[in-house]
Structure formats: C-alpha cells, structure tokens
Amino acid sequence: MMAAQIFQELPQRRLAPDRISFNALLSACAGASLWTRALELLEQMTSCAVEPGSITRNVVITACENALQWEVVLQLLEPDKPNGAPQSATNLHHSAWWLSKQSPSKISKQRALALAQRAVGKLQDFKVKELVSLLRSFSSMLVSDPTLFGRAAERLVLDTGTTGMLQTQEFANLAWAFASTGSNTQIFPAIQRALVQRGQALVEDGKSVEDDPVARDYAEGMLGVVWSLNYAGLLSEAFLNFATSTLKRLTGSAAQLAESWPRTSCSDVAADAPWVVVESRQAMVLLKPAGWQVDDDDQVLSDDVWSLSTFVSQMLPLRRCPLIGAKPFSRGFLHRLDVPTSGLILVAKSVSSFYDLRLQLASGRLQRDYQALCHGSLSPSRHEVRAAVHWWSDGRSSSSSIGWFGRPSITTYRPGDPGDPGTSGGTLRGRGVALTMRCIRIVTGRKHQIRVHSAHIGHPVVCDGRYSTTATYQLDLNWCPRNFLHRYSLQFCTDGTTMTVSSSLPNDLADALRRGFMKNAEFTMVHQKC
C-alpha cells in the first residue's frame, strides 16, 4: 500500500504523523477491509498524541463494517469505550442499524432495549431520515419501546414539512416499522396522505415506471405501504382502490400486450422441465420441478441448477415480451420457490400485470397454498404459527432462524380434503413413527418460512437437510429424494377474472409417499376432517 509506505517514511523526513496522514492510511485500510490494521492505527494515534476526530472514527467503522465485524463497530460506537464515539443522535441511529446486523442473543436484545431508551432523550435531535432509519432498525429487532414509537409518531405527524423530504421507500419503511411492532397507529393516515399527494402529482406529470426511476420508486414504496397496512389490519378499500388506479396509470395500459404467440422450441432444457399450466394475455402459471432456480436477479447458479428465466425466455421471445428479460421487474416472476421445492410459479407478461399482481400479493388477495409431509403427529388443533423469521442478507448464512429478532411471519396449517387427491391430508402412524400431511398457507413470505416454522414447532418437513437433524435427514433419504414440500394452488385475478390454479402432487413425491408405505408396511392413514 503506497499510503503505508509514505506513512513509514515520515520520521525519516523529520515529519510527525498528524490526523490527516492517519486518516489517509485508514481510508486505504477501509477500502481493503483491513479492520485489524485500522484498529491498530487508531491505538497508534493515541500513543502519538493525535486526537481522533469524527472522520477518523467513521473511517475505522467503515473498515470494520466492510469486514462484517459488527461487534467491533458497536464497541466503537459505545461512548464509554476507549476511542468510543460521542453519543449523538446520529451515532445512536448508526448504533441501531449496526446492532440489527448482529446475531440475535440476550446481550444484543439488552443492548437494543437500552439503546431505545437512550434514543428517547435525543428524539428532537434526530434528522427525519435518521429517525425513520432508527425506527426501521428497531422494528427489525422487534423492539417496540412504546415511549419512543409514540413520541416519534407525534413528531412525524406534526412535522409534515420535513417529512416531505422523505422518499416513498422511506415512508414504506416507516409503515413497516409501526405495523410489525404493533405500535402507535396514528402515523398511518399521514403516510397515506403523503402517498396520495405524490401519486397524483406523478400521474399528472405523465410519469411511467418503465422510464422514470422516481415513478418506479413510488410504485415500490406504495406496495410496501399496502403490505404494512394489510398486515396491521388497517387497509381500507378506498386506499386500495387508489393504489390500484394509480399503479395502472403509472404502468401503462394492459392492452399493450398482444395475444399469445406461437412458442419457440425448448430443446435445451432438462428432461424434467417446467411446463405451462395455464396462460392468459397478461400472465401465466408454470409448474416448477425441483432443481430449478427462480432467478429473478443476477444470481450465479451452480452447475446442477437450471434457470427458470432461461426456460421462460425460450418460450416467450424477448422481442415480444421484454419484461421476461427485465431485471428491475424481477423478469416477471411474482414470487420464488426454494430450488429443492416444486410448485406453481406466477409470471407476469407485462409491466402493468406485474404491478397489478404484486398489489394483489401485498394486499392479501393473491393466495398461495402448499402441501407438506411433516414428521410427527401434527395436532388438528394447530392452525397457525406466528414466529419472527430472521435471515442474513449479506451472505453470512443461507439458513433462516426463529428468535426474538426478525420479521413477523405467519403460517397457517389446515387439513386437506380427504376426497381430493391433490390436497389429501392426514397422519401416517406405525412402528413408533408418525408423519402428517398438511395443507399450508403463508400470510407472509419469508425465506424458508414454511420449513423453519414447521421445524420450530417440532414437525420438520420430511427430507429437509437444513432444518432437521442429520440422522433424521439420512433416514428420510432412504425413501424420499428431496424435501416434501409442493406449492399446489394459486388464486389470483387476471384479465378481470378470478383464477384458481391447482397442481397434483408431482410424481417424485407421490412415488416417495408410496415407498414410505412399503418401507413401513404397518403405517395407516388417519384422515383429519376439515
């Protein structure tokens, strides 16, 4: 590093290192994520009688943040620690954000609660954007200090001039913070008024999400606010109607898409390929087999995983359906499924239908139902699981977990209809082993939600190598090739018609179920009536 070499030559040139030279070297450390070297230099500043400034601390924090050293960042932000930062409103806001990146623990919870109490005393010192970020960080940890959230709501409702500087996504973050923590609801009318005013202005200016980033940010923020209002039980028909009409005008006419066209050849796909279950002018439903990735962004796929977007683009030429290749619009995919999970996938064929269907999803109008075979005898009285799901978004872990920290999540369980082979439900009992087939609906859509919720209540999905014990997984592999989870039903509205699309259990899972019977000949099916 050139900066380090120059720094070492300072004594030879009879020059004393000062804050500027230290900051230059620290900046180089931050760029290279050399967090241990940055901490050493911070200590060296003290020995050289050079007082670290706010810029110095921020650069050291950046070096630690780039290396994902969240615990060290928090120590640097503690005012009573050596080289700790002053406890300003800005630093409190940063502390809350970095604390939300910590692994959930009793210590991190205690820190979060203490931090929330300190923030109350600094409430008037926060900039509005900092305050929104602070509340969002606390809500992601499910910390809902009533005094903090109540006073913050009062300030934000009264300070309408300042809240006008917020971006629409920040309004969505604010709505999510209050909805997920069940806090003061007086903030919601103010958020809705702000979105109505902005939406009307964008429509009057003729903006479009396809070529205007502000309109696109507004559409994304609107979807977030609708989701939060629906989750809180406060979504009115009037506001939903406004959101529907505004998004339609910002996304263009639904008539922009021609009717279905002849398909191109799909020769370069796996033998067990997806197929179209139903198709309309605006959307189609695919059946995704296990082993296929719903690649709606720039993910790099492993060699043993097939790309669903490649399959769709071979069916629908990009020149006729450019949405399929548009990453800002998730290539038209409305939702994901884990690679080892099979089931129905909804794909929009126009920008207008993409946002219309996403609005249905945010408002709870789009229903997704699954079949799962779980370990144990799951009681018919078990109808719901409410448990926060936490996962890392920075690559530290690909598993989700249940704890005091995370996003509120709801999964509902119900028996299937014994007369319907597509949704049969019941319990298999025999030889000291029990397995239960249940129909599952997700109210929220978190990463691995069904799998982690089922494991949380002691009934992991069969052949789930991530959320069951190694011994159980190895035994399951003797008769089941993959996790026994299948999305069998979607209900949504397209072209003015409500559609319910269903899929029977795929062959590999149906065969596994038969093998389970043969391997455990004493098993009997005990149906649970709806």
Automatic annotation (TrEMBL):
| A Pfam family it matches | PseudoU_synth_2
Q: Where is the Pseudouridine synthase RsuA/RluA-like domain?
A: 284-456
Q: Which domain of life is it from?
A: Eukaryota
Q: Which GO terms describe its molecular function?
A: pseudouridine synthase activity; RNA binding
Where, in residue numbers, are the PPR repeats? 18-52
* Gene Ontology biological process terms from the UniProt entry: enzyme-directed rRNA pseudouridine synthesis
Spell out the family assignment given in the record's similarity comment. Belongs to the pseudouridine synthase RluA family.
Q: What is this protein called?
A: Ribosomal large subunit pseudouridine synthase D
